[in-house]
UniProtKB/TrEMBL annotation:
Organism expressing this protein natively: Enhydrobacter aerosaccus
Domain Glutamine amidotransferase type-2: 1-220
Protein name as annotated: Amidophosphoribosyltransferase
Summary of the function given for this chain in its UniProt record: Catalyzes the formation of phosphoribosylamine from phosphoribosylpyrophosphate (PRPP) and glutamine.
Enzyme class of the recorded protein, top EC level: transferase
Protein's GO biological process: 'de novo' IMP biosynthetic process; purine nucleobase biosynthetic process
Phylogenetic classification of the source organism: Bacteria, Pseudomonadati, Pseudomonadota, Alphaproteobacteria, Hyphomicrobiales
Length: 461
């Protein structure tokens, strides 16, 4: 999901809509904006793309105010019904509070059961609403202490934005699994998922929100507190591999450069004699550039992507995904025919994309097809906010590398090693198993945050 919040400008909604548009890659199912105009909150939420929901000036005009938060939804829990669209808004004894969440809580289901038993009426099926009820029930004051009290009870990955009549709050979970950064535009403060959302409105990047930090912006300016016990930071390495936009800077790392370095490391670890390096667009492009530079083999756009089809994997249903992959890519025959081709992609999840691309490249006349992947094999599902499918659907959980190569039909297949990945991320010693600096659970099975709900087997919504 994507977060964008702004405080201190008369065009809060218009800026938020632009920010959400820049963050569309983080969620394409639905979007919403809540604003506050000094007296009233206004909100508009709908299924669809940001441009379709907020493109009309008349919609923006109804969202009056000098502060706003917005959210792009990408369903990880709770299904795709309208009542799950964020920001969620509720009236508390202290006034209104809007809440938007990127990440996934790992004990939300257990907390929810307990809250329902105590009489809480849930309006949605998302994990996020649990935070609302915990804030509502907290006996602390002021609001920020109620937020701290509530967050003390939840486990999981969360970057959060909250908007009240008084302030804009930005929070990152104690391990900082999901991104969040701070920007400045004249007198306004911005808190958002990625720096590309600052660029689109001409705002200046100030810094990342730190893991475990709560940032509060109000009429007095910006202040920060760190109420949680300090923990090892475990930023999601998959944001760098795939999820974030390449023109963003996250955790002080330029995403594009990181992907190129991963490609270089991949070339070092897994060279192969070939005539051409071809990225699987768009996600494989920076890594393929790195691979080509390191190997000295020419880089060509041997596959052309149709830009009017969204990211295939973000569509929730399997049959759509199959259809999407065929709609999306075409071989550029002149650079494939008669060649030994190295395809570079960021990751293999189910293997369906790779299988189709390989088939397409072969039928365009490739002499050999080798596949190089800029991530280790995805063996385990994510429970922290990325929508990887259940373990049984992950190709790497069913086959070893040789089996995967056979499944997708390539002459050779290789993945970057986990140590190679850490080297590319600036850790010359590779992954320190005792103290890894990233979350890499989908590649290692080492889950840094306890998965309480997983052990609870009652069926859930
Ligand atoms: P596959 O066909 O192997 O399921 O999809 C792999 C492609 O989907 C890669 O090109 C990659 O860019 C993209 N992808 C990256 N992350 C994910 C994810 O979490 N889930 C899914 N299904 N696809 C992803
Ligand atoms: Fe990121 Fe993978 Fe960890 Fe999920 S499990 S937070 S995708 S590194
Ligand atoms: Mg891709």
């Amino acid at each position: 999901c994507a977060l964008f919040g702004i405080y201190g400008t008369s065009d809060a909604a218009a800026h938020t809509a632009l920010g959400l548009h820049a963050l569309q890659h983080r969620g394409q199912e639905a979007a919403g904006i809540v604003t506050f105009d000094g007296r009233h909150f206004h909100n508009h939420r709908a299924a669809g793309l940001v441009g379709d929901i907020f493109g009309e000036q008349s919609v923006i005009a109804t969202l009056k105010g000098y502060s706003a938060i917005g959210h792009n939804r990408y369903a990880t829990t709770g299904g795709s019904s309208d009542r799950n669209i964020q920001p969620i808004f509720a009236d508390f004894d202290f006034g209104g509070l809007a809440l938007a969440h990127n990440g996934n809580l790992t004990n939300a289901y257990l907390l929810r059961k307990e809250l329902v038993r105590m009489g809480c009426l849930f309006q949605s099926t998302t994990d996020t609403e649990v935070i609302n009820h915990l804030i509502a029930r907290s006996s602390y004051s002021p609001v920020v202490d109620r937020i701290i009290d509530a967050l003390g009870k939840v486990k999981g990955a969360y970057s959060l934005l909250m908007l009240t009549a008084e302030a804009l709050y930005g929070v990152r979970d104690p391990m900082g699994v999901r991104p969040l950064c701070i920007g400045r535009l004249e007198d306004a403060w911005i808190i958002t998922s990625e720096s590309c959302a600052l660029d689109i409105i001409g705002a200046r990047f100030v810094r990342d929100v730190e893991p475990g930090e709560i940032v509060i912006v109000d009429g007095q300016g910006l202040r920060s507190i760190k109420p949680f016990a300090k923990q090892q930071r475990r930023f999601c390495v998959f944001e760098h591999i795939y999820f974030a936009r390449p023109d963003s800077k996250i955790e002080n790392v330029g995403v594009y450069e990181a992907r190129k370095r991963i490609g270089m490391e991949l070339a070092k670890e897994n060279p192969v004699p070939a005539d051409v390096i071809v990225p699987v667009p768009d996600s494989g492009v920076p890594a393929a550039i790195g691979y080509a530079q390191k190997s000295g083999i020419p880089f060509e756009l041997g596959i052309i992507r149709n830009h009017y089809v969204g990211r295939t994997f973000i569509e929730p249903a399997d049959h759509i995904r199959h259809l999407g992959v065929r709609l999306k890519h075409n071989a550029n025959r002149a650079h494939i025919d008669g060649k030994r081709v190295v395809l570079v992609d960021d990751s293999i999840v189910r293997g369906t994309t790779s299988m189709k691309i390989v088939e397409m490249v072969r039928s365009a006349g490739a002499k050999e097809v080798h596949m190089r992947i800029a991530a280790p094999p995805t063996t385990d599902p994510c429970f922290y906010g990325i929508d990887t499918p259940e373990r049984e659907k992950l190709l790497a959980s069913r086959y070893d590398v040789a089996g995967m190569a056979k499944f997708i039909g390539v002459d050779s297949l290789a993945f970057i090693s986990i140590d190679g990945l850490y080297r590319a991320m600036g850790m010359p010693g590779g992954r320190d198993a005792a103290n890894p600096t990233f979350c890499d659970a989908c590649f290692t099975g080492d889950y840094p945050i306890a998965l309480d709900d997983l052990n609870d087997t009652e069926d859930r919504q």
